[in-house]
Design brief:
The structure is a single chain. By secondary structure, this protein is of the alpha+beta class. Strands 1, 2, 3, 4, 5, 6, 7 and 8 form an eight-stranded antiparallel sheet that branches.
């Protein structure tokens, strides 16, 4: 015959509580690990730069060509002078109606660094949106 062992009253409940506590700690640790891992492995979106686009390049003599954006100036294929990425802006104030051509210099990451209003003007720090040189309102490309 098999001898039966004597159990203390409530011993089964203590074991159940211990197993439940261990399971709860394990689940909490798993959730913390998963959430910490998830926040550190989220990929950063790629930012597009001027190098991802074909832009118009124009020199001071008015020669134009199209090529991808790039740092600094490009040599003009016609005269060899410096050409810069160029686009036309329109004033958002309908009463002003000013349009202007803007040249950009890109930095080493092909992001706008300096601008000037073509065909004259000093290079100034790039700001977005550019301000109308006539009335000071925002300009928009196009």
């Amino acid at each position: 015959m098999i001898a039966q062992q004597a159990h203390e009253p409530g011993e089964g409940r203590r074991i159940g509580k211990l197993v439940g506590a261990i399971a709860l700690v394990a689940v909490a640790a798993g959730v913390l690990w998963y959430s910490a891992r998830k926040t550190t492995t989220t990929p950063k979106p790629r930012e597009r730069t001027a190098a991802d686009f074909i832009v118009a390049w124009e020199c001071d003599k008015g020669h134009r060509t199209e090529a991808p954006g790039a740092p600094g100036a490009r040599p003009c294929p016609t005269c060899g002078g410096e050409s810069f990425a160029t686009f036309t802006c329109s004033c958002t104030d309908g009463a002003c109606g000013n349009t202007a051509t803007m040249q950009l210099r890109y930095d080493e990451q092909s992001l706008p660094d300096d601008m000037r209003w073509r065909p004259k003007g000093d290079w100034i720090k790039y700001e977005f949106p550019p301000k109308c040189p006539k009335c000071g309102h925002d300009m928009r490309p196009g």
